[in-house]
């Protein structure tokens, strides 16, 4: 066994880095599997897809749900991702004192981060028991839907393209047109 190991950060230590100014407020960093991960700047295409996804999901999730855009989820001691869009149960005020620890749906918009979102992020969300994970894939102009986590990996993946629709697992109606998610 090597005496040299990378330092694995906890959510508590990560948040202290922000409080002490070690991580500047405008730095785009997330805690994924104990690692501090730099997040790429967003292209206008990426930003448009986030906004379109937010608008489309807001129509389907109203009462009893909070749509969080690029805000933290406290998923484990070593995971605090900031998904592009997360749908959590409750209201804004329910998460005043602590970040939500789960979500009913997480959506990531991916272009340069596509492989990372399919592997590392998917594993984080599967381990956290997130029942529904979507990737708005800007590279291939499609939405990838991941479900049925075994606690490590998602066991079910479907691809939806322009002209198709997709529904959150928690509520099959109303469905959302894939065209409403893609820029």
Task: Tell me briefly what this model is.
This protein has 183 residues and is an alpha+beta fold. It has helices at 11-19, 44-60, 114-127; strands spanning 29-32, 35-38, 65-69, 85-89, 105-110, 132-137, 142-149, 154-161, 165-166, 176-177.
Give me the side-by-side strand order of the main sheet.
Answer: 3-4-5-6-7-8
Unreliable segments of 5+ consecutive residues: none
| Total domains | 1
Q: What fold name goes in the CATH topology slot? A: tt1808, chain A
Radius of gyration: 16 Å
Helix-strand layout with pairing:
Elements: H1 11-19, E1 29-32, E2 35-38, H2 44-60, E3 65-69, E4 85-89, E5 105-110, H3 114-127, E6 132-137, E7 142-149, E8 154-161, E9 165-166, E10 176-177
Parallel strand pairs: 5-6
Antiparallel strand pairs: 1-2, 3-4, 4-5, 6-7, 7-8, 9-10
Protein model, in words:
This protein is 22% helix and 27% strand. It is of the alpha+beta class and 183 residues long. It has a single domain (40-180), classed as tt1808, chain A (Alpha-Beta Complex), CATH 3.90.1570.10. The strands form 3 sheets. A 6-stranded mixed sheet has the order 3-4-5-6-7-8, sandwiched between helices. A two-stranded antiparallel sheet has the order 1-2. A two-stranded antiparallel sheet has the order 9-10. A hairpin with a 4-residue loop joins strand 7 (142-149) and strand 8.
Any key phrases for this structure?
22% helix; two-stranded antiparallel ribbon; 183 residues; 3 helices; tt1808, chain A; alpha+beta; 27% strand; 10 strands
